[in-house]
Design a protein that fits this description.
CATH architecture: 2-Layer Sandwich
Helix content: 40-55%
Number of helices: 6
Order of helices and strands: HHEEHEEEEHEEEHEH
CATH superfamily: CHASE domain
Strand content: 15-25%
Shape: globular
Number of domains: 1
Number of strands: 10
Distance between the termini: 39 Å
CATH class: Alpha Beta
Radius of gyration: 20 Å
Largest sheet: 6 strands, antiparallel
CATH topology: Beta-Lactamase
Structural class: alpha+beta
């Protein structure tokens, strides 16, 4: 989790230092920093779009903000704001303009990240036979972080988007538990050797 958080901060640094970020720069940077993100299934940047900005944003992107369910892709129903994916770690992942905040389980974690400035996690969800957990970190603009604002309302107003990752829950907990088991075995071994003396 610490690596994932650090990797998210690295991406926040990219967003802050390259205001006119394009797909080519995004893909080059994320592929060269892949080693920072073990166990991360996917890394994306989601732009925050207010409802009043939606039409202009969709025209600029030349497509609509979308949602996906078991029957296919659909235009995202009207809401007060949206969080469409505008950059993905692989150009062909196919989630461009999908709005994760169209799903209530993810929306609560995304809005918590926006309002608190903290790294937030969604509940684990079973997708395509894999338990995944979304992790979100809000981006407030160059030179801004959560401490730059005095209230949740100020952070909400300033939020420009989110760095989001999808974690394979099984792999993350396997690594955590295996490290704990190794430490426990070393502790038991040390304890037993002290008793034998």
């Amino acid at each position: 989790m610490e690596n994932n958080l650090n990797a998210s901060f690295v991406i926040i640094g990219l967003l802050a230092s390259v205001p006119q970020l394009n797909e080519s720069t995004w893909l080059q940077f994320t592929s060269s920093t892949l080693f920072l993100r073990p166990n991360v299934i996917e890394l994306v940047y989601m732009q925050r779009v207010l409802n009043s900005e939606r039409a202009a944003f969709e025209q600029r992107m030349n497509t609509t903000i979308k949602t996906l369910n078991s029957t296919g892709w659909f235009p995202r129903p009207e809401d007060s704001e949206y969080s469409p994916i505008v950059f993905e770690t692989e150009a062909d992942e196919g989630y461009f303009m999908l709005d994760p905040s169209s799903y209530p389980l993810l929306k609560s974690a995304i809005y918590a990240a926006r309002d608190s400035g903290l790294f937030t996690l969604s509940p684990a969800t079973l997708l395509t036979n894999m338990w995944l957990m979304g992790a979100y970190l809000a981006y407030y603009g160059q030179g801004q972080d959560a401490l730059s604002f005095s209230s949740d309302a100020d952070r909400q107003q300033a939020c420009l988007g989110y760095v989001a990752t999808a974690l394979n829950v099984k792999e993350v907990f396997y690594i955590v538990l295996s490290r704990w088991v190794v430490k426990f075995c070393v502790w038991i071994s040390t304890l037993l050797s002290g008793i034998r003396k």
